[in-house]
Amino acid sequence: ATLTCNCGETIIRFDTTTPRATVECCCDDCHKRLSYCAKLGGPALEHGIYERTRPITIRYFDNRLSIVKGRANLKFFKLRPDSGVVNMATSCCNTFMLKENIRYQGTVVAAIDQDYGNADNADLALEDHQPRPVEHRHNLANVEAQEAIIRTFPDDWLPEHISFLKPIPSIWFDEGGNVVGQPDGWEATFDAYMERVMAHVPPMMPGIEFGVLMAEDKHEVEVATEKIFTDTNAVTADAKAAIAQ
Fold this sequence. Notes:
Low-confidence stretches: 120-128, 231-245
Structural class: alpha/beta
Distance between the termini: 40 Å
């Protein structure tokens, strides 16, 4: 599988066409990752993602990256100083590329499906999102089709938006930081998901680890400037409670 930035100057290859797992994510942070890059001049968010009516699709791959092109273009950032997630983007066109979460102990990296598209409207450069593209250009290529095994953090969405989505097992954190979910039996799906993402990387798999790449190239991790992005679809506490019921 290959992962290419919007301008084509940065390309990363994975040694397999099959992701470890595919997830539908509704979390505020993934939305902010894409929004932050867009505000810096990166690809505009697809309309459904911008409006929070379509979840972000995340594909987890083994934490072994082969940099085909543009290693010097890579940069790294966090949304908050205390975040356990480090994000990789590009300096050539401010495209979000990957993220690594310390929760998974170095086993996987996560790519977000993006359709760079071509909406053929001159004024779209002034917008944060794009209508349905007239031409599709996907960031991921040579990836085996895979349905999402689970949906994460639907409590970050408005309940009326969630109600239109296909029902699949879903998880989020309660106020005590514990994983909870729905419907009944979600635990078995969550266990299967965790088993996939926590498995050790196969021995001798080619490529470099995300963290080793950062260390070798002496990258500093920037912290996103809060004022650059705004969450236009903030969910109230009452709405989150309604989802949890």
